[in-house]
Amino acid sequence: MNTTIRSEETATFDPAGEEARVLERCDQLVENALKNGADEAEAYGTRAETIAVRFEKGDLKLTQVDDGATTGLRVFRGKKLGFASTNQGDSDSLVATARDALALSASAPPHVANVLPTPRGREKRAPLAQVSIHALSVDQIVDMGADMMSRVRARDPRISIDNASCEVTRVSHAIRTSGGVRASESDAQLSFSVFGMAIDGEDVGGFHYGGDAVRHVRDAEAALRELIDEFTSVSVGNLGAARAETYKGPVLFSPDALLELFISPIVSGASAVAVQRGRSALAKKLNEAIAFSGLDIVDDPTDIELAGAGSFDREGQPTTRMALVERGVLKSFLYNGYAAAVEGRTSTGHASGGPRSVPGLGTHAIVVGGGVGGTRAQMERALDRGLFVQRFSGSVDPASGDFSGVAKSARWIENGVVVRPVKETLLSGNAFELLQRIVALGSHPERCSGSSRAPYALVDGVSVTAG
Amino acid sequence: MIRTHTAVHSDPTDLLAEVLAKNAGGFVELRYHKKKTRAVVVEKGRVDTAQVTEHSGVGVRVLEDGTWGFASTDRVEALYIERAIRNARAAAKASARARSERCAPLPRVELARGRFESSGVDELLARPIEGTIDLVMRIESETRARSATIQSASCAYSEVYEEKGIVTSDGAKAWTRLIRPEFRVSAVASKSGEIQRGYESSGATGGWECLFRAASAEQLSERAAQRAVDLLSAPYCDGGRAKVILSPALVGLLTHEAIGHTVEADFVAAGSVAAGKLGQRVGSELVTLCDSGASEYADGAGGTLRVDDEGVLAGRTTIIENGILRSYLHDRESAARDGVAPTGNARAFEFDNEPLIRMRNTYIAPGDSDLEEMIASIEDGYVLEGAANGQADSNGEFMFGTREAYRIQNGKKGALLRGVNISGSAFDVLRSVDRVGREFQWDLGSGHCGKGQPAKVDAGGPWISCEVVLGGRS
User: Fold this and answer.
1) pLDDT digits (tens, 9 = 90+) for A344-387
2) pTM score of the predicted model
3) Domain B13-232 classified CATH 3.30.470.30?
4) How many degrees, rounded to 5, is the angle at CA B463 between CA B457 and CA B468?
5) CB-CB under 8 Å, A138 with B421
6) What residues in B contact A397, CB-CB < 8 Å?
C-alpha cells in the first residue's frame, strides 16, 4: 500500500521497516496461495522511493517524487505454472492476485522442472548503501542536478544538453517461498545521466550519453567529475566528423563497445536455458577455448561498486562470484531454478528480474579482465592505423553472434594517435569468430555506466564500411 | 475461467474532478491510469510465462512558479490524491530556484471531454486465456516441427489493456479505454555449427481479428521457420552505398527512427538536425510523411490513441508535405513556446511517469508505383525486408537492421541474402526517394519505442526506392 509520498518534510527511508512491510505482503500472498491449492508458492516484492530531477534542453524541466510497491506471486500446482502481480496492497487485491495465479496454473500444461529451488544459506554481507544516501532530500537532489548542469555548460559553450537527470532511488526487496526462503535486503543508488551533443554553427555532432551510479554520497563527486570529463570531451570531439575508410582489419573498441559487441553474446550463450533449448553457440564448448587466451569474464555480485551487487537472486538463492571465462576458456554456464531442475543440479544464483514477471536468467555484475595491453594510449599505438569505436549502435544476434551496426563517436587513428572523428561508418562481423581474433586487451578495466567493468580491446578481422 | 480485466476502479474522472476542485490553484493535471496485461510465452514445449499483471494509480503534474512538479500515488482515493498534489507542488517549488527560464502559463486549447473507447476492448477482455494458451502451445509445436534443422521455437501472446481518466484544471475530463494485443513466433535453425533465427510478429490496437489481419498465426509460424532455415545457406551482402527498395516495415523504421525522432519538439529544441528547417525542402516531392493518433489507410495500427496524456485530442500531423518540412511534434509546453497548437503527442508509459513527446502511428503516404515496376527500374541494387532494431542520432544519421535482403540485377530480383544493417543521413535518404508504392501497410505494431520510457507506436507505409549505405561483409 502506498501511503506516503516522500518530500523534504518526510522522514528518512527506513530500510528495516520497509523490508518488514514487503515481507508481510509476501507472506500474505504465499499463505493465501497455499490455502487455496498451490503445491508451491513464491512471492517476491519491492518497495521503492525515488526523487528525480530531470533537465531538458539545458534547463530544469521537472522534479518528480514518488514511491510504490509491487508484489509478484508464482505458484506451481501439479507442476503447472501460474503468475500474477499487483501494485495494490489491500487485502482484496492480494486475494485476487493469488486467485489469478492459481487460475492460470489450472490452464497451463505441467512440466517436470516446475519446482522451486531448495533454500540455501547465504553469507552475511555488509549493507549495500550507507545511511547518508537514504536521507537525501528533494532540495539536495535539485542542488546536485543543477550543479552537474552548470559544470557541463561551463566546460564548452558548444555543448547542447538534450536531457539529463539526477536521481536517488531507495529500494527494499524481499522474497518468501513455501520451501522456507525468507530474505530481504535494501539498496540505494544515486545516479546521474546526461545525453546531448555539441553544436558549432551548422555542424551538429553525434549524440553522446554518459551515466553513472554510486551507493555512497562520498563517491558522488568523483563519479560526477569523471562523467562530465568524458561526456564533454567525446561530444565536442564528435564535431567535424568526416568519412572513414572501408577496410577489413583491426579495430579498437572502448570498454562499452567491447561489452555490447563481444561480451553480451557470451553471456547470452552461457545461459543454461539457451543451451538446453538449442539456441546457444556455446552449447558444447564448456572447458574449451572460446576466445583470446588473455580474456577473463567474471560475474561478481560482491562488487558493491557495481549496480547489480546483492546477496540473493530473484529466487532467493545466494549469489557468489563466479568465473564464466578464464584465460579464454569457457568455465561455467548460468543457472536459475528452472534450468537447474532440468539438469538435476543446483542453481548458480542467476535468477533475474523484478516482481512483475516470472524469474528470468541473467548476470549481476560483469567484470572483464586479464589484459596486459596497457593504457588506452598504448592500445591506440598498438592499432597504429584504423578505426576506434567508442559506442556501437546496432544489433548482435545472441544465437549466431552475427552483428551489424554503426560505430558511434568513432575516431580515425593514424600513427597511433587520434587524428579526426568519423561518421556513417558501419561495422559487421561475427562476435564468436572475432573473440578468437582479439589482439590485445587493456590492463585497466573501467566502470561502464556503474554496472560493469571492462578494458579497451583491439580486435582484428572486423569489416568496416565507410558511408 | 481466468478473471478477466474487470474494472477495479470504474471511471474515476468524477472523483478526480472533485479532488481537483477542492485543491484548486495554478495548473493541475490528474491522470488515473490502469494497465493490465495478460501474457503467455512458450518455448520448446514449456510454458515459460502464464501471467496476469496489474499496475494502477494516479499521476499528478502541477505547474507552479513556472516549473513542473510531479508525484504519484497508487491509491485512487481522495486523501492520497490530495497528498500527491501537495507533494507535486512542493517538488515544483523546490526546483523553481534551479530553473532559469520559466514555463509560461499554458494557453487555452480545445481539450478532450467525454468517453473515448477503442474497438476490440470488450471482445478481447471476454476472451478466455485458456484458448490462447492452447493456441500458443500449438503454434510453438508446429513451428518446431516444420524442419529437421529447427532446434528450438518460441511463441508468445500478450495483451495490454489500458484505461485512463484525465482531468485538468483548464477543462479536460476524458475517460479512455483501449487494448493492444501482440503475437510473436521465433524459430532457431542450426546446421554444421551455424545458428540462424527467423522471427515474425504482429501487433495491433484492436481485437483478435485485427491482430491477425495481415497474416494468421499459422502463416507467421511458417514464415519464421522458413526464414530461419533459408538463412542458414544465405550469403552476406556486399557493403557500401546502394540503391534499395525498402519494404513497408523498413519504411516505417525510416519514418520513425530517421525522421520522427528528429522532429519531436524536445529534440528540436536541443538542436536536432530538423531545427530551423520548417518550410524548407528536406525530401523528394514524392514524400509526404505524417504522424497520427488514428490508424490511417488501414485498421489496427499499434500506436492508435484518441486522447493524449495531457487531454489533447490526438489528430493527424503532416510533418513533411511533398518534401517540405511543415511541422514538429508537440506537447502543450513546446506548442506554447512555438506559438502553435499542440499535436496530441504527449504520452506517459504508466501512471508514475510524466508525459513526454512521443510518436504514435508514423508513415509515408502511399504513391502510385507498383513494386514490380520499381524492381524492374533498378539495374543494380537490393530489396530489403523485415525490420529489426533501429536508432537515430541528433545529426540525422540513422541505423536500422533488416532481416533479409535480395539482390536486384538488371531489373530482376535474385536469391535471399542475410539481413544487413543500413545507415544514412535522414534527409539525404528522403531526398533520394524516386518511387513510392501504392500498397500501404502498418508493420511495426509489435515492440516499443524507447525514449526514457517505453511507448507503444506503429509505423509503416508503401514500398519506396531510395539510396542508403549497407554494412555488408566485403
Assistant:
1) 999 999 999 999 999 999 999 999 999 999 999 999 999 999 99
2) 0.93
3) no
4) 90
5) no
6) 197
